[in-house]
Design brief:
mainly beta; 4-stranded antiparallel sheet; 3-stranded mixed sheet; about 0% helix
Length: about 80
């Protein structure tokens, strides 16, 4: 499943980490890197038993601002870090 991370927040350029929930007891780091403010990065995630290849459940962390959030993202859509 492919999707885009879009950093759209008040913070500066910083390290962003994105974890995908694989099942009830584990998650996988699908991205960790520096993303500039107002920039986009393409990411490839895994298909899961719960969500298949059409969507996924992700937790993102923005180190610069200390923000974190959990959200579902559909295939070919954006995970918004804001």
């Amino acid at each position: 499943m492919a999707f885009t991370i879009y950093v759209k927040n008040e913070g500066d350029t910083a390290t962003v980490r994105v974890f995908q929930r694989i099942n009830n007891s584990e998650s996988k780091n699908v991205f960790e890197g520096i993303i500039e403010h107002d920039d986009r990065v393409a990411v490839q995630a895994l298909g899961t038993a719960d969500d298949g290849d059409e969507r996924g459940e992700f937790i993102w962390q923005h180190e610069g601002s200390g923000l974190t959030n959990q959200q579902y993202v559909n295939k070919d859509e954006e995970l918004r870090v804001q």
